Amino acid sequence: MSAIKRARKLAMTGGYEVVLEPTLTISQLEELKSWYGAELQGREDVGSPALVKSSLSGRVLQLIEDRILCLEGKGPDIQ
To answer: What is the DSSP secondary-structure string of 45-69?
Structure first.
């Protein structure tokens, strides 16, 4: 099961919002935040955290997915 609940492109800036499943730990969320230079916001409407970045670059959603799997010990280590 994916740790990404949903992702959407931000029309105004070309960035993205990635809503994550609420199963990630605070330390995992902080690592993702620092790794991607994104803001971490709470989405009370869905009870989940969200990574928000104002500009989108290439394969970033797949990279976030891969990084989450790595943090959960389910994927290859990414350097």
So the answer is: TTTEEEEEESS--TTHHHHHHHHHH
